[in-house]
Amino acid sequence: MLNSRVSVDRMRILLVGAGGVGDAFAKIAATRSFFELCVVSDFDISRAEKTISWVEAKHGPQNGRFIAARIDASNAQSAAELARTHSATHIMNAVEPKFVPTIFAGALAAGADYVDMAMSLSEPHPTNPLEETGVKLGDDQFAQAPDWEGARRLALVGMGVEPGLSDVMARYAADYLFSEIDELGTRDGANLVVRNEAGEEIFAPSFSIWTTIEECLNPPVIWEKDRGWFTTAPFSEPETFVFPEGIGPVECVNVEHEEVLLMPRWIDAKRVTFKYGLGDEFIGILKTLHQLGLDQTTPLKVRSAAGPVMVAPRDVVAAGLPDPATIGPRMTGKTCAGVWVTGRGLDGEPREVYLYHVSDNEWTMAEFQAQCVVWQTALNPVIALELLATGVWSGVGVLGPEAFDAKPFLTLMATPIAEGGYGQVWGLEDRPVA
To answer: N or C: at which end does the chain have fewer Cβ atoms within 10 angstroms?
Structure first.
């Protein structure tokens, strides 16, 4: 399967966004040969040009395999026209989830397949937000599944690291490790530290603060087989989870995330959760932003020297913090993403495992000049697109990573680079049954 090259010469990718994750995506993709063209697009075309310059400096002339373009991610027509101009077969969405509706619509209008790493946004229940779901993550995309099925096009949603790799690993556990699953619990933790020029530790989120605020301050969603989807309070049910490879124990709390909305659609489990290791300082800052109304996305009128302007408070917070794409040189440590699975193994006996992947910032900076969180996120859609290009994965409609066989993905991921893989070993850790 690894040597299959069914449609290598026909895949043409429109990459939307050349920020941290988009930049890392292009740098990883440059090491592969499964596509003929990657159009790196951004509202600020200089960012796309910078990414391509790095690729050419690292790997030599690309002979037109990478080109830069300007795009307005808030405009579906802009995405569709750019895709048509370059005969894109696949649109890779690497911008903030607030742009999912327009890029999603633009891909369908252009007759292109679509991949994203975060899904359409949720809206809390209007009267009972801490118990009942309102509009769930991805609801808007799944509602359009008939349109994608009718067009015989594929939208592969939630194909980053979390969601993404964790969902692939959950599928692997269900198919190859367990006969019955009690809980699929995505657990994300790190020991990352960012310091300023004076060597002092500073607050600098390793991922988009816009997205982080959205995830962490919305009511977290939990799924149970006898209850369905329901919500709880932000930062609820703290637990200490021990992460591998030297990261150690990290307190994790419930956070709204796509895995809980994706996994139950394709995998039989009694309970699905997502918990993230945020830390007391981060939680305190997020709570303060909420108390001050700085998490809001509705623009407010603000006085300036040039006169009144309309500004969204959350955009001001994002503008005031370091760009996650730039903090890599000042960051140390590792990040771990994975899924903790409990239930009964294939022998019918109780089993508990943690499937995971660890990304080391020192290595990702040295090899790709990308900090480890964005690099780990970008790795997985590249692998997925290669599986689609080679025909190992295929499908139509709106599908999550769980809809595909996990073994080819994990095999290609772990296979040494010299043998045609990505050289990224993933872990499977059996743990004592509680």
So the answer is: C
